Amino acid sequence: MGTILRIFLWSFSIFCFGICQAAMAQNEPFKAGQIWTYRDATPVSSRLIVGAVDNFDGESQPIVSVSVTDAPIPNGGKQLQTVPHLPVAADALRKCVIELERIGSIPNGFDNGYSLWRHAYDSGKGGYFTISVEEVVGHLRAQFGQQPAAK
Question: What dihedral do alpha carbons 43, 131, 35, 72 form, nearest 10°?
Answer without folding.
Answer: 30
